[in-house]
Design goal:
Uridine Diphospho-n-acetylenolpyruvylglucosamine Reductase, domain 3, six-stranded antiparallel β-sheet, globular
Length: 516
């Protein structure tokens, strides 16, 4: 679609100077997904409002011209979360909408604008000794609050207290704690839970402009433990056994080999940065120096076994943290082998990083995940292992490798197989990484054969997970929604879409909702 200069000038005048761009380079940079799609396309215009009135004006302008509105936060999607496949596209870049609207330490909640990153919010809350009850994603240095609420997270969103929303025609709506006149309320729902309708909608029902989140005190003490396993299914079953105790201890499972590879490939500067983060992230300088020394002496991920389960207990006192960890460790099977808790210590020091969006040598990365009930994670992991073993000869021929990651939440375990291959980096990678890291990996040539095989393997892994009954977060346009829902649920959800967005201008294609 060719936009008339007068149209572009008109919307620029309505939302703010410098917030509208038709520059091909900027459109290309902001239209990219972390993964690569054969039929991907550029947005026709980028709208970057700086306040909620600008968002309303931008949405009304684009909808009035029948344009598709693609809401974008940090751009960390790998499920085509904001890349429409057809129509003229107005990309709504919300990163400038990043302020703290309201912070109440005594009432333990914050109202933060949707374009703020999790790292932004963490910095704002640190002086008060508070943190969001909803833990942000690992990519929180770049990914935004609104993006996480729209895409959903495996741990669930029950700590979201309310939302401020812009509907498809530009009207403003508030829900939950934000719907109360005057100051925000204390409850998410006093009556029907309207907030829940707009969580995990992938931006298809409304544009998030502000989010109210519950806060909790920062942990004053932490204790960690790690155990080695022979295979990922044994690790997953051990994780399920620990999670069944409901101790509140954080659990992560990783391939020790891939962790060692990451450490070996890290530059000296990255290693120093990790140690510096370990020191400054501790509650005292002495504790930080002790952590740094333990990291340096133990080596990252040293273990004779290929898989590691990592436990982290955080609490208000060292004694409480030790007691929580002891209860969790008691549930670890006896065949597990204790190993140095280097990995959870490092993760405590640097909770947000996008370095993991590439492999240890700068390989491209394509994950797929499934969330399984505790009793079914072992069976699902074995099915994934069999599939990858069968595909191994083809993968090796094209230079592909793989790993898996596990995490636990409530009554489920998430398994995330990951595919790596050597390929040219995309602008979405280089813009998110530190400049020195991006420069080090910038010379890889295009590798379409390996990329095509990665796409095929990823799809096969998804089919295995669906056969095993997995559920997913971050559905975008990759994971199925309507195809798996029962008919009454599909009808109700589509009816809600038809009410709030009758012309399907908000992110069509996500959740299977195409324009009619």
């Amino acid at each position: 679609m060719r936009l008339a200069e007068a149209d572009v000038a008109a919307i620029a005048g309505r939302i703010a100077p410098g917030t509208v761009s038709t520059d091909p380079g900027e459109r290309a940079a902001l239209s990219m997904d972390v993964f690569e799609w054969p039929d991907e396309r550029l947005a026709d215009i980028v709208l970057s409002p700086v306040d909620v009135d600008g968002v309303r004006a931008a949405v009304a302008w684009a909808a009035g011209r029948g344009m598709v509105i693609a809401p974008r936060g940090g751009g960390m999607s790998y499920t085509r979360g904001f890349q429409p496949q057809a129509g003229s596209v107005a990309l709504l870049d919300l990163r400038a909408l990043n302020g703290i609207r309201h912070l109440s330490p005594e009432d333990r909640f914050v109202v933060v604008e949707a374009g703020a990153t999790w790292l932004d919010l963490d910095g704002a809350l640190q002086p008060y000794g508070l943190t969001p009850a909803l833990a942000g994603p690992i990519s929180g240095a770049v990914s935004t609050i609104g993006g996480a609420v729209s895409q959903n997270m495996p741990a669930g969103m029950h700590h979201v207290l309310g939302l401020e929303l812009v509907l498809a025609e530009g009207s403003l709506v508030t829900t939950g704690a934000l719907a109360r006149p005057g100051s925000p309320g204390a409850l998410r729902a006093s009556g029907p839970d309207i907030t829940g309708l707009f969580i995990g909608d992938c931006g298809a029902l409304a544009i998030k402009t502000a989010v109210a989140l519950r806060l909790v005190p920062r942990a004053a003490a932490s204790e960690c433990a790690s155990f080695g396993f022979e295979d990922p299914a044994s690790l997953a079953e051990a994780m399920a056994a620990v999670q069944a105790r409901d101790t509140g201890v954080a659990l992560m499972g990783l391939a020790n080999r891939s962790v060692r590879d990451q450490a070996a490939a890290a530059s000296f500067g990255e290693a120093i940065s990790m140690l510096r983060g370990t020191v400054t992230g501790a509650s005292s300088l002495l504790q930080g120096i002790g952590r740094a020394a333990r990291l340096a002496l133990r080596g990252v991920g040293r273990s004779d076994l290929p898989w590691g389960l990592h436990l982290t207990a955080e609490a208000g006192s060292p004694a409480t943290a030790r007691a929580l960890l002891a209860e969790a460790v008691a549930a670890v099977p006896s065949h597990a082998v204790p190993m140095p808790p280097t990995i959870p210590l490092a993760m405590l020091s640097r909770p947000y990083s996008v370095r993991g969006m590439l492999g240890p040598k700068g390989e491209r990365w394509a994950p797929v995940h499934g969330i399984m009930p505790l009793g079914r994670i072992g069976h699902a992991t074995r099915a994934l292992e069999r599939f990858l073993a069968d595909a191994q000869p083809r993968m090796e021929a094209e230079g592909l490798s793989h790993s898996m990651m596990f995490s636990a939440q409530d009554t489920s375990v998430l398994v995330e197989p990951m595919i790596y291959w050597q390929d040219s980096l995309r602008q979405v990678h280089t813009s998110a990484l530190k400049p020195e890291v991006a420069r080090r990996f910038a010379g890889h040539p295009q590798n379409p054969r390996a990329r095509a095989l990665a796409r095929e393997i990823r799809r096969g892994l998804l089919e295995i997970l669906l056969q095993e009954g997995a559920m997913m977060a971050q559905l975008g346009r990759y994971y199925p929604y309507e195809a798996l829902a029962e008919e009454p649920a599909r009808t109700l959800a589509r009816a809600i879409k038809d009410v709030v967005d009758p012309n399907c201008v908000l992110n069509p294609g996500v959740l299977g909702w195409e324009r009619r």
